[in-house]
Structure formats: structure tokens, C-alpha cells
Design goal:
Length: 338
Amino acid sequence: MPTVTGGRATETIATERLARLAREAVDRLRLDLRGAVVLTEAATGAYAVTPVLAALAGAAEVHAVTRDSRHGAVADVVDETHRLAERLGVRSSITITTDRSDELFRRADVVTNSGHLRPIDAATVAAMRPGAVLPLMFEAWELGAGRTDLDLGALQARGVEVAGTNERHPDIAVFGYLGLLAAVQLADAGVSAHLGQLALWCDNPFLEPMAHGLRGAGATVRSADTLGELLAGPRPDALVVAMRPRDTAVIDGPVAALVAEAWPGVTVTQFWGDIDRAACEGLRVWPEQPPAKGHMGVLLSRLGPEPVVRLQAGGLKVAQVLRIPSRRRTRDDLDYLT
């Protein structure tokens, strides 16, 4: 839900739209969490949908942890979540709290890896019960990409099953938004994708949908998984970085110097992959404030609520599948997992 600027009427329209998207997602995914105790987060904007989706899918209890953040105060979170939940008739199933307690983790059948619950470290995992499940709100291959907020070894030892979300599943289809998301980030940085000359540095499955979407927006795109190949070509309007994060920055001092020498003053957009901004003299890096280590530099919510609802509902579908005994999971069930 975008920031309210037009009074109560705008709030009502936004809530109605988000409610419609939530119900459509539950129906499309045949989302069924009946009987489950779900622990997730409560947040503002489109992310208010997560606990509501769980409740709409029939969860017996939904506990949603929140805190004040740059995206909104706790009072805003409570207001937006309750407004949406009331619209869908599930407010009584949702409890919002600022207390991230061991007792909440101990009682949960489903724990999402959402921001206000992280880090899911060894101490947190010790409070979880064996047999609980943890769906990732991203594809499993992203786990090794600089993320330090999830202790997989502890989860496995505790008997908590973990799986990623197949964002390319036709019922979820989040990868289709990546090119448009990159184009919006470029616009925020002052570079038009339409008729733009772009260098896309990408070494992961984001490559094809990003390049396709940027070309659809009217850009000329040269892509490669090695920077040297791109630097051998003409100077672009922007270098779009969509590299898998690692222990060290994707762009550090030596790499920044190479780019600045080849393309002085070029705009660099950090779609994904950590960048050492202090080392980027001679380059313009966007966003100006770096995202957390291993995280994307632009949120899906920048495109509105649709991709957020699809991703959050897809993650909860993973939880549904993980709660089915492994011997009873069908091929269709497994297609939602990565």
C-alpha cells in the first residue's frame, strides 16, 4: 500500500485493492494453513499483507512481530495491519507484538525468515520446536549470497525443515518483475531505461528476466557475468550491478578504479551485490544509502503491492508444503520449493 496522501478515501481504496490481491493469491495458490500457529512479522505498506495472508489461509493463530523502523512506527503497522485484517474478516486471528520472545518461537509451527524476526541465529533456533518449518521468502540458491542472518546448521540440527520459494512458479511469477524493478531503480538514479545504453553485470538467474524487462522498456542492454567483458565495450549510461553477493564487496577499490578509468562518472545502480561506496571515487552509486549486507538495493514494493503479495503468499505456500509429510508430497507440491 503506498503512503497515504489523499485522506481516508485513498486509504480505503488502497486497503480494498490489497485485500483483493490477498484473496486472489490465497485462491490461486490454494493456500491452506489450517490449524497452524504462524510466527511472522507485521510491517507497513504492502508488507502488512503477510500476517493477513496467513490468517486468511486458516492459521489457528498468527503472531506478528514488529518494531519502529524507517518504514513506519509501530502505531502505523498496527493500524494498517488491522485495517486490512478487518476488511478480510480475520483480525481476531492476528496478534501484533513488539516482543520477539523465545516463547513465540517455541509455540510456532511456521516461522518465516522475515526482517523483524531476524537474525534466526543459534540462540533463536534453540527455542524452536523440532518439526517446525521455516519457509524462505526467496529462492534457496540465494542463501549463500552474503546472508549472515540465518543459521542453517542450527536449523538442521534442531529438526526444522527449511526450503526456498520458487519465485518462477507460474502461481508466484515474481521474477517477471525484475526488469521493471531495475528500470524503476534506474529512473530513481536519474537514468532512463527507455533509449538508454545499459551494461548489466549479472552472474545469476536474475540475468534473463532483467535483460528481457529492460529491453522491453526500450533499453539497449549488453550483459555479461564478467566485468572485463563489459568494460571492453562502449561507455553505457549506467552499469547495473546484479551480482550474487559474497564475503567481500562485489565492487571494492580495485574494481571501482577499473570502472572509473574506463567509464569516468558512470552511474552504477546496486540492484544486488555489495558495493564499497567509500572506494567508489569517480563513480556515482545508487542508492546513496547502502542496503544491508547481502540485500537488494531496491524493494519489490517500489512497484506496488502485487509482487509483494505474490512473494509473501508464495513463501507461505512453501510452509504449507513443508508441513506435509515428505512421502505424501506430490510433484505439484514440490514445484513450489527450491
